[in-house]
Amino acid sequence: MFLPTTPQELRTLGWDALDVILVTGDSYIDSPFIGAAVIGKVLHAAGYRVGIIAQPDISTASDITRLGEPRLFWGVTGGSVDSMVANYTALKKKRRQDDYTPGGANDRRPDRAVIAYANLIRRHFKNTAPIVLGGIEASLRRVAHYDFWDDKIRGSILLDAKADYLIYGMGERPVVELVAALGGAADPKRVSSLCYAAPEPPEGYLQLPSLEAVRADKAAFTQMFHAFYHNTDPLTARGLCQPHGARWLVQNPPAPTETQAELDAVYALDFERAQHPYYEAQGPARALDTIRFSISTHRGCYGECNFCAIAVHEGRTVRWRSPDSIAAEAEALTRHPHFKGYLQDVGGPTANMYGYECDKKLARGVCEKKRCTYPGVCPLMKVDHRPQTALLKRLRRLPGIKKIFVASGIRYDLILEDETGGEDYLRELVSHHVSGQMKVAPEHTEAHVLSLMGKPGPQSLIEFKNRFDRLSREAGKPQFLTYYLIAAHPGCSEADMARVQRFASQKLKIHPEQVQVFTPTPSTYSTLMYYTEMDPFSGEPVFVEKNLARKARQKAIVTG
Ligand code: SF4
Hints:
- This protein is of the alpha/beta class.
- It folds into 3 domains: 7-196, Rossmann fold (3-Layer(aba) Sandwich), CATH 3.40.50; 293-435, Transcription Regulator spoIIAA; 436-560, Transcription Regulator spoIIAA, CATH 3.30.750.200.
- The protein has 23 helices and 22 strands.
- Strands 3-1-4-5-8-9-12-11-10 form a 9-stranded mixed sheet, sandwiched between helices. It has a 3-stranded parallel sheet with strand order 20-21-22.
- The model has no long low-confidence stretch (mean pLDDT 96).
- It binds iron/sulfur cluster.
């Protein structure tokens, strides 16, 4: 079922009022890939009456007031993408397209959507139910952070939005705890993965340098970010607090990672895999083309690329669904009226992290001074592709499935590392799950830039390409690799991009087209480097291209 979004639907359901109203910067697409839909369905399954208002017009009262006022809380999210990333390119030009908006025009998501929607609620409802922020925009801006679009350090978005609570990371378990607490079952401030403002710091919480201190001193900001980053693991993290003027931003420790049974239960909910008819009538949402018939097999990533925020949002511990749960979802998809036999993706943040994890991490948390895949794959990470190979074979046998694509990114260094199952997995991919071309993301080819990105060197890329070419020949398939690259990452100069271009044409025999200019998104190590112009691990200065025209030139050196 769809959650209600109009007064007529409330009447049809016989609901006189709602417990929770979710307000989102995306259209209402009822899919397990859309956070507002997942949170709404989880709360509904827990017995609460939930409605959704998608992309409300912030200039009038008509959208935000149409479902009335919730009994327990307003949930506010900017949507699937940070609103500033959704609205502007890395060169700060307004984007014309929004895949999560009906019709596709980028005309519905306000800048800093979380703040805009919280203000909208307060403008039209006085002394209303608590406002709870969630989703990636809130999660990555939960403490003081560098904002590329303002080119300054901003304070916690919780305080900027004047909201009551903020749930960070994966929200299913904390939101159910919070809604029960708000109903009177417990003190809401004890809920894990929760941020709130307080007049005093809680006892035992680690104190981060104040907002004022990190604004004044880049070294203090670096120290703050290290402490923030190292307190994200559910087994080891302490609560954090940070003075913002006379108030304190308090971040409770993260919730334990989801169990397999909890994950399976989320994906067993009755998602429509369609846009709600109220919004569909305004035009199709392009995001559905890629997510409608895709399956998420796991969460989390221990790749820790420095430009990626998954480590502080989803976490570095991979947890995966059971093969039975995934097969049941695939079977259900084959019965969908629009299904034509093709699964667009079976994967996760990194496709080939399904089904294995480091035992030490599972028992005692992530290492503070080591990384799982950099500078090489840690010997305690027993890479094993056999569970994913078996899963793909099982899904292929299901009646109604013609082809399964693995469109999520893969880490080729993990395939090379796995002497037992790596070759079979890659053979499986090139034989059955690639159609003409396979995308990989080396991001760069120069060792010093790759090192600042936290990525492996170019040698593993060449080894992987040779193996991919050989297995494609053996499978009798003329296939090739396409490469995602990043220009203007901290440390990267125009001379570096000229070397990337030479490497691509001489070693990879290609002319790369998939080159993105680096975007300093909130709460990543690369963004920290961009702002401070320092390597946060060595303390050495780093060249950073900040001029927009010269950033564009870096890209053009490779793409022509
Ligand atoms: S022991 Fe190695 S694989 Fe395990 S968490 Fe630490 S760095 Fe990662």
